[in-house]
From TrEMBL:
Gene3D superfamilies: 1.20.1260.30, Vaccinia Virus protein VP39 (3.40.50.150)
Matches recorded under PANTHER family: SLR6095 PROTEIN, TYPE I RESTRICTION ENZYME ECOKI METHYLASE SUBUNIT
UniProt record similarity statement: Belongs to the N(4)/N(6)-methyltransferase family.
UniProt protein name: site-specific DNA-methyltransferase (adenine-specific)
EC category: transferase
Keywords associated with the record: Methyltransferase, Restriction system, S-adenosyl-L-methionine, Transferase
Domain (N6 adenine-specific DNA methyltransferase N-terminal) ranges: 8-81
PROSITE patterns named among the record's database cross-references: N6_MTASE
Matching Pfam families: HsdM_N, N6_Mtase
Organism for this UniProt entry: Qipengyuania polymorpha
Domain DNA methylase adenine-specific: 153-453
Length: 484
């Protein structure tokens, strides 16, 4: 129903000089979607209050509500073209009045848990990139055709928004930072199996994929009671994100999935000192894909017991310490983490094996992350007991991965099935930790169950086979000529 609208919005943005990339398209669509969502939410709350005979005070002033400036209606409820701002007047209003007003909510909000605070955060991080008030007017009219009133409508919009995030990821390296393939996320969540009442945390949440998929998984398991629903809404999902655009997109993504005021914080997670973490700061479950290949400054490294400039290694230390005792984690990391010989990585592997039960390592094929150019593994571990055995699974979809043939849920079904019992197969095996070299703590993926490859043939054998094929082809051609 809404798919054509999204295409038309992209067409408008494509003609807009201020928007040049898929990242810009997603960012600009996000702030307009958010304000339309907010207007529908306000209307629904007003109606509920009226039915209950209660007064309702809107979040936004009337003059700054979507229905006033973005989509004014006449007495018949039709779009009021004469009363709608357009051209330079519209751009001036958005840049000089609307955005400053919305930014001010952060200072006025009672607490960071409120939607008022989220409004201030979002519009403090985002800029209007439309330079033409005529293009902006076209986009606003299209967005106004979308509706957030029913659960089905929100569901469809969340799928379309996910598609935009995926396109942003496919568009290049910067977009790829924010996108983890959803089939991989779903497989990780199936193994972790979060339950209502547990807290879930992603300290590098990007576009919010792990939290959104975990919400869908937990909400879909059975009919939720009112208390369980409120628990999922308010006290289950927590995230942190350093980059402004990703923070805004994650907030919008979670809202579209049905979480009204996401517990997301715009911050650099690594600036927190992990030695100062209190029990109240810890979580039952960590799901994350921290950034690959980043480098952190000396002052950031001081927040960690194992000093390294490698961002992913610092995140892993953070995640190990933010888990409660008995907590569970699934973390995507570069496969070189298993074998690098630098002192910091060796020390980190040692600490992981001694303080956590690293029970599963999923080895992902090249091309899983578009544009990233690195091989990855997923580490599954539980906090509090040392590792005795590690179960490895080497994923081989039997094809080259890429934009046209990305990872799918079927690719991971065998892994999820076998992982339940840590079963051996051609693609899976177990390693006893007492067999690990305690000098290097090397945990490299070496599959002892893979079928032996055919030995390479000698050049003489290859030439002989080619001659046999040539002779056969000559014979067939001669038979065809004789038939003519």
């Amino acid at each position: 129903m809404f798919e054509q609208t999204f295409r038309n919005i992209d067409d408008v943005l494509w003609k807009e000089a201020g928007c040049t990339t898929e990242l810009d398209y997603t960012e600009q669509t996000s702030w307009m979607l958010f304000l339309k969502y907010l207007d529908d939410l306000e209307s629904a709350r007003e109606l509920e209050a009226e039915l209950d005979g209660k007064a309702y005070t809107p979040i936004l002033d009337k003059e700054h509500r979507w229905s006033t400036w973005a989509a004014p209606k006449d007495a018949k409820g039709q779009y009021d073209h004469d009363g709608a701002l357009i051209g330079d007047d519209l751009i001036d209003y958005v840049n000089r009045e609307l955005f400053p007003y919305l930014q001010g909510f952060k200072a006025r909000a009672d607490s960071p848990d409120t939607i008022e605070y989220k409004i201030g955060e979002i519009f403090g991080e985002i800029k209007n990139k439309f330079t033409s008030g005529y293009s902006l007017r076209d986009a606003l009219e299209l967005i106004d055709g979308l509706s957030f009133r029913s659960q089905d409508q929100k569901h469809e919009l969340s799928h379309l928004y996910e598609a935009k995030i995926k396109n942003m990821g496919n568009a290049g390296r910067n977009g790829g930072e924010y996108y983890t393939p959803r089939p991989l996320i779903r497989a990780m969540i199936q193994v972790i199996n979060p339950q209502v009442g547990e807290t879930i945390y992603d300290g590098a949440c990007g576009s919010g994929g792990f939290l959104c998929e975990a919400y869908d998984h937990m909400r879909g398991k059975h009919g939720l009671s009112t208390i369980e629903y409120r628990t999922l809404q308010e006290r289950t999902f927590y995230g942190k994100e350093k980059k402004s655009l990703a923070y805004v997109i994650a907030t919008m993504n979670l809202i579209l999935h049905g979480i009204e005021a996401p517990n997301l914080i715009h911050t650099n997670t690594l600036t927190e000192n992990v030695m100062d973490l209190q029990e109240k700061d810890k979580f039952d479950i960590v799901l994350a894909n921290p950034p690959f290949g980043g480098k952190e400054r000396k002052e950031v490294q001081q927040n960690f017991p194992i000093k390294t400039s490698e961002t992913a290694s610092l995140f892993l230390q953070h995640f190990m310490r933010t888990l409660k005792a008995g907590g569970r984690a699934a973390i995507v990391i570069k496969n070189t983490f298993l074998s690098n010989t630098d002192n910091a990585t060796v020390a980190l592997r040692k600490e992981l094996l001694e303080s956590c039960n690293l029970h599963t390592v999923l080895d992902m094929p090249g091309g899983t992350f578009l544009g990233a150019g690195v091989r990855t593994v997923v580490l599954f571990f539980e906090k509090g007991q040392p590792t005795r055995n590690i179960w490895y699974y080497k994923l081989d979809p039997g094809r080259n991965m890429g934009k046209t043939n990305p990872l799918n849920d079927n690719d991971l079904a065998d892994f999820v099935r076998l992982q339940k019992s840590f079963a051996d197969s051609e693609k899976s095996w177990s390693l006893a930790v007492d067999g690990v070299d305690f000098g290097t703590y090397d945990l490299s993926v070496r599959n002892p169950n893979a079928p032996e490859e055919e030995p390479l043939r000698s050049p003489d054998e290859i030439i002989a086979e080619m001659k046999a094929f040539d002779a056969e082809a000559t014979e067939i051609l001669a038979e065809i000529e004789a038939m003519l």
